[in-house]
Amino acid sequence: MGVPIEGEPIQIHSYKHNGHIHRIWDETTILKGTQNLIIGGNDRTIVTESDGRTWVTREPAICYFHSQQWFNVIGMLREDGIHYYCNLSSPFIYDGEALKYIDYDLDIKIFPDMTFNLLDEDEYERHRQEMKYPEVIDHILKTQVNQLIQWIRQRKGPFAPDFVDLWYERYLTYRS
């Protein structure tokens, strides 16, 4: 597994457990890239859905991926504060083409006051049965939901005060 170069744009590819593409973010600028951690920034990037539909993100975002965590975090800078969207997912890989991960349906949406909602439990259950998620994956994901909630409550990692703002300042230095 390679390491993306800081300042370089990459794509992000999200897959489903069955190997089908779920979503592609066209361009994210690498702000930090190591074997274990990738932090990226994007703003008004094109997103392509599995059915070919496209849309454009509305606000700047800082993306956090860790090779040891079964989730990734997107911090979106909005007028009323930072909103977070967390995807329960496989740890990332970077193959030189794109950062890639498997999306496992469960999401946590976090508001600027750090209140949060667990989303898509029905979708997770349906896909768990349809795609036959192994029990070990089911266990890992449920454990990681609890860990993610602890991180949110403790303001740890990407939820730390100023984390998104500091990385957004770095992102701005790469914009032309």
TrEMBL record:
Residues 18-156 form the DUF402 domain. Mg(2+) 2 binds at D105, D107, D120, E123. InterPro entries: DUF402 (IPR007295), FomD-like_sf (IPR035930), Ntdp-like (IPR050212), SA1684 (IPR016882). It catalyses: a ribonucleoside 5'-triphosphate + H2O = a ribonucleoside 5'-diphosphate + phosphate + H(+); a ribonucleoside 5'-diphosphate + H2O = a ribonucleoside 5'-phosphate + phosphate + H(+). The active site is at R23 (proton donor). Keywords: Hydrolase, Magnesium, Metal-binding. GO terms for molecular function: magnesium ion binding; nucleoside diphosphate phosphatase activity; ribonucleoside triphosphate phosphatase activity. Its EC number is 3.6.1.15, 3.6.1.6. The keyword Lipid biosynthesis does not apply. Its cofactor is Mg(2+). Mg(2+) 1 binds at N87, D103, D107. Belongs to the Ntdp family. Has nucleoside phosphatase activity towards nucleoside triphosphates and nucleoside diphosphates. This is Nucleoside triphosphate/diphosphate phosphatase. It comes from Niallia alba.
